[in-house]
Amino acid sequence: MTLLSNHIPRNVSVIIILAQSAIILLLLIDSLHCPQYKIIDTNVLDSALHNLVERNDDTFAQTAPPQSQPTLLTESTALIITSSWIPAHPSTEMIETVINSTRRLKGASPTAPIIITIDDFNVDFFARMKNISEINVKRNDLEEYSMNLVKKYAKSPNVHILPGMDHLHIGGSVLKAMELIEILHPTVKYVYYIQHDFEFSEWIDHTALIEVMEEYPNTVNLIRFLRKFEKNPKCGNATKIYCTVRTFDENGNVNKDDDSGETSAVSRNLTLFPAEKYSDNNHLARFHWYKETIQSLISVRRPPEFPLANRAYQVCQNNESMGIYLYYSKSLRHLDGRHTVKA
Asked: What residue spans define the domains of the chain?
């Protein structure tokens, strides 16, 4: 149902409201049969009011602002960072370090959406605690941490803070973030999952990795990043994928080769190894494949690592593959949020 005032200019709306009030007053007087008042035919007033609205329809068409539609940005990649209470809260220093490290994803859009989830406490966590004051301190620290994040990124339109009102764990938090991305950024095809205490420690050629995933749409579904090398990575009959990536200096500038007479980017070969192991450490995945994979868990309110690692292993034993590959370079640094205390 649309209000009349939505279709006419404000000044005309005031006139109409006054006219309507006059009609009501006249009808009331008429009902009281007051002979001292000269009653105007209300049908005439109604007709005049109707004509007044019709005459101003054209005026509204010229003066009313156009109805704006929400702008949906055409981003192809999004980032999800899950966080929960750690002893260093309410400080945001650790997660800021992680967020800043995403600048090492060279070629990623500077306006790519970043969804930061904040998980609530597990009820069982408090059940093991007998000191009520300690519980209150932890809850207050998490609340203050949330507000610190909101204040820090309030003017960053691509950063969305998503606090939890329940304990969703990693799986539930990721799924919640992905549902928001589908609404705000329906063009997203790829997603980085990042933990709040794992930073990227080296420059990564994001553009090259996306090119690999585009070239192997039925083969590569997820690329895992490593903080330490895994021995003899393999998965059934799946083969390694060789790609070329750009190299960067310590400031993230592309290294240039001037010796050839033409300035060109210095590149190196990178091997993506098929893997029979899934990990909740940072990774890049196909958006819709990843969402369906998380949804397939019996319960999403858990770390996906154990059930998905087991699934990946079983699939590889059958000479098949979930499409998990390793970015075979030490590209992560663990900041160990669980054992980092307040400064």
From this structure: 4-63, 77-339
How far, in Å, CA of 289 to CA of 164, rounded?
24
Cβ neighbors of 234 (< 8 A, separation 6 or more) are: 273, 274, 275, 276, 316
Read off the pLDDT of residues 294-332 as tens digits, 9 standing for 90 and up: 999 999 999 999 999 999 999 999 999 999 999 999 999
Q: Please say whether the beta carbons of 241 and 217 come within 8 A.
A: no
The helix, strand and coil proportions of the chain, stated in percent and rounded to the nearest 5, come to 40, 20, 40
Query: Distances in Å between the alpha carbon of 193 and those of 12, 29, 34, 103, 285?
Result: 54, 72, 78, 15, 8
Tell me the three state secondary structure of residue 304. coil
Torsion, CA 134, CA 135, CA 136, CA 139, rounded to 10: 120
Cα–Cα separations (whole angstroms), residue 242 to 171, 202, 211, 215, 265: 31, 19, 12, 12, 18
pLDDT digit string (tens) for 171-188?
A: 999 999 999 999 999 999
The burial of 42, by beta-carbon neighbours within 10 Å (0-12 exposed, 13-18 middle, 19 or more buried), is given as middle
Q: Give tens-digit pLDDT for 119-140.
A: 999 887 777 777 788 889 999 9
Q: Which residue has the tokens 């992905």?
A: 178
> DSSP class of residue 253?
P
CATH topology of domain 77-339: Spore Coat Polysaccharide Biosynthesis Protein SpsA; Chain A (3.90.550)
By CB atoms closer than 10 A (0-12, 13-18, 19+), residue 307 is middle
What the block records as the tokens of 197 is 């205490």
Cis bond before residue 66 (omega within 30° of 0): no
Q: How many residues does the chain have?
A: 343
